[in-house]
Amino acid sequence: MVFLEVFDFKLMREMIRRLYVVCFLSLLTYSVNAQMSMDYLSADFHKDRREVLRAKMPKNSVAVVFANPIRNRANDVDYVFHQDPNFYYLTGYREPNAVLVLFSEKQKDKSGKSFNEILYVQRKDPFKELWNGKRLGVEGAKKELGFKEAKNTEEFFTNGINFKKFDKIFIEKFKDDYRNSEGNLTETYDLVTHFKSQSGYDPIKFVSGVKRKVYELIKATPIENSANVAQAIGKASTYYPDLKQDELIMQYKDAGNNALKKELKQKIALQLKSTSNIDIEFLSTRMAEMREIKTPEELKLLTKAIRISAIGQVEVMKAMKTNMSEIEVQGIHEFVYKKYGAEYEGYPSIVGAGNNGCILHYTENNKKKIGNELVLMDLGAEYRGYTADVTRTIPANGKFSPEQKAIYEVVLKAQDAGIAACKEKNAFWVPNNESKKAINQGLYELGIIKTIEEEHSYFPHGTSHHIGLDVHDPGTYGKLKENMVITVEPGIYIPEGSPCDKKWWGIAVRIEDDILITKGQPKNLSKEAPRTVKAIEDMMARKSVLDEFILPSLDD
Ligand code: GLY
Ligand code: MN
Ligand code: MN
Q1: Half-sphere exposure in the Cβ direction for 8 (13 Å, CA)
Q2: Same structural domain, 44 and 191
Q3: What is the CATH number of the domain that holds 138?
Q4: Domain ends where: 150, 181, 203?
C-alpha cells in the first residue's frame, strides 16, 4: 500500500472516488456489531467502572481522560495503535483521538438536557475508514459502548464546559510524545492543547508528585528542624533529579540562615496555595485501587492470555533444537499466540541464550544458534487487552547440565517459597522477601556467595508486580487481596566474569508464573507450562509438528 502523495493527487482523488462508490455500500452494511462481538469486556463492565470511579470523586469535580494518540513510525507508516489502559478500562473504546469527560454530578447543557459523562470519539469518515479501518463513531459509541452522551471529537472544541468552575479537575500525566497535528483539530495534540487552555493548566503553578511532597514537608516543618529537611532533600534529589531543577527547593536546602529559610518557606506556602484546581495524582491512585482487583470478566480474559502464553512455552519446549536462533524461538511462541487470536505481545519478547539471559530486558534476540545453552524465555500474549507474563528457562539440548540444574533448582525452590506466600492479607512484598531468602540460601550452599548476608547482584530485581491491561499493571502495593493477579519471578543471573567459579558463568535462570490471590491457596494460572527439571526434560523429549517444518536454505 502506498501513500496518497506518491501519486498525482487529482488522479488519485478520482480513483478513490470511484472505489469509494463501490466500497461505500459494503462499508455501510458491515456491522459494527461484527467488530464488537468477539469476547471483549462488556459495555456494562466499563459503565460499572465509571460508576465506581465517580463514587470516589469529591463533589464538584471532573475527570478528563485522553485516549492514546497515534505515533508515527516512519514516513506514512504509523506504529500499531494501542489504547491507553485507563481510557480503555473506563470506556471500551479502541480508537485514538478521543476524550472521556466524567463529572461527579449531573450537568445540564443549554437545552436543559442532563448528563454526567461525555465520550468524544472519532467522526465516522468513509474516506479515512477506507484506508485505516472502521470507526465506531458516535452511534457506535452509544449502541456498542452504552454511552448516553457521545459526540464527535470536533465538538470538544465547542463543548462549552467551564472547567474552571470545578473544585477539582482530575487528569493523568500528559504524554508528550505525540505529533503536533498543525491545525488538523481532531488529534490528541489538539484535544490536549484545547483542554490546557480551557482549564487554565499552567505547568509553572502545577506542583505535583515528589515536588509537592517536598513543598508540603517544608511548609509543615518548623524552622528549627529545617536541617533535617535539607538533609532529606539532598538524599531525595539523587533519586528524583527533578528536585534539583526547582529553585525554591534548592535554595531552601542550601540556605545559610533562618531568615532566608523563613522567607523561602513563605514563598513555598504561597506557591502551594496558588496551584490550580488540576490534580494529577488522584486519578492514577484511584485507577490503581480499581485495576489491581480483577473482576470476573477481567479474570476470564486474563486467564486466557496466560493459558495461551503457557501453551506457547509448551510448544517451544517440544520444538526447540540447538541449531535454532533466538528469534526463531520467539517466532514459535508468537505463532502460537496468534493461532489463539491474541492480538499482540504484551511486551517485547525476551529470548536469551546463555549469557544473553543475564540482560534482564534483553530484546535483541539475535543470537544465530542457541547451541547447548540454557534459554531464558520471557514471553506474554496480549488477549483482548489483557497481558500475561510467563518465563521459562530450558536447556536447548533438552537436558540440564549439572551446573544448570543446580542453579535451576535454587530458583525453583525460591519460586515455590514466593508462591506459597501469595496469601490474602500478606503484605505485597512478602513473596519477594521469601524468594530472596531462598535465593541467598541456595547461592550460599553452592559456594557462589561466601555468606548468606553477602551483598550480591545475582538477583537484581523484585519478584512481583500486578498484571492486567498492562504487563506492569498499576497497584497500591499494600496488602494482597482476593482477585489480584501478580507474578512471582525469582531469578539468578551469573554473567561471564562474575566473582565466582567459572563453571557458573553464563548461566541465567528466571522462572515466572502468574498467580491469582484467592481466599484460600494461591492459584497458579500459568501452570500448564512445565516448571520442574523433570517435567521440562520430559516435555522437550516429545515430538513437535515443527520437526517436519523444514524450509529451503538461502545459504549460497
Ligand atoms: N516481562 C517483564 C517482566 O517480567 O516484568
Ligand atoms: Mn514480570
Ligand atoms: Mn516477564
Answers
A1: 4
A2: yes
A3: 3.40.350.10
A4: 203
pLDDT confidence of residue 413: 98
In a domain, 222, yes or no: yes
SS3 content of the chain, % helix, strand, coil (to 5): 45, 15, 40
Q: Which three cell numbers stand for residue 123?
A: 467522526
State which ligand 1 atom lies nearest to the alpha carbon of 350: 1
pLDDT at 62: 98
CATH (domain of 328): 3.90.230.10
Ligand 2: distance of its center to the CA of 380 in Å?
A: 9
C-alpha cell, 187: 488529534
pLDDT of residue 206: 64
CA distance to 42, 136, 286, 479, per residue, from 54 (Å): 19, 25, 10, 24
pLDDT at 179: 75
Give the pLDDT confidence score for residue 12 in this predicted structure: 43
CA distance 383 to 514: 15
Give dist(CA 46, CA 41) in Å, integer. 8
Ligand 1 within 6 A of 328 CB? no
| 356 and 501 inside one domain | yes
Q: Looking at residue 479, what DSSP letter applies?
A: B
Spatial CA neighbour of 101 closest among 139, 54, 52: 54
Q: Would residue 451 count as lying in a domain? A: yes
Q: Which of 203, 231, 254 is the last residue of a domain?
A: 203
Print the domain residue range for 261.
209-274
User: Would 500 be classed as within a structural domain?
Assistant: yes
Q: Are 187 and 224 part of one and the same domain?
A: no
Whole-model pTM: value is 0.86
Q: Is the dihedral of CA 165, 171, 173, 178 positive or negative?
A: negative
Q: Which residue positions in the chain have pLDDT lower than 50?
A: 1-37
Distance 40 CA to ligand 2 centre (A): 24
Residue nearest to atom 3 of ligand 1 (CA): 389
How far, in Å, CA of 124 to CA of 545, rounded? Answer: 45
- Residues, the chain: 556
Residues 365 and 470 in one domain: yes
Query: 515 has which bridge partners?
Result: 486, 524
Answer yes or no: is 112 within a domain. Answer: yes
Query: For 185-194, what is each residue's pLDDT tens digit?
Result: 788 889 999 9
Give the pLDDT of residue 98: 96
Query: Are 322 and 449 within one domain?
Result: yes
Q: For residue 406, give the H/E element and its range.
A: helix 402-420
157 plus 226 within the same structural domain:
no
Measured distance CA(63)–CA(170) in Å, rounded: 4
- Name the residue of 365, 391, 459 to mutate for ligand 1: max ligand atoms within 8 A of Cβ: 391
Query: Strand pairing of 61-66 and 168-171?
Result: parallel
Q: Where are the beta strands (DSSP E) in 157-257?
A: 168-171
Q: Which parts of 51-137 are beta strand (E)? A: 61-66, 72-74, 77-78, 99-108, 114-121
How many domains does the chain divide into?
A: 3
Helix (H, G, I), strand (E, B) or coil at 390: strand
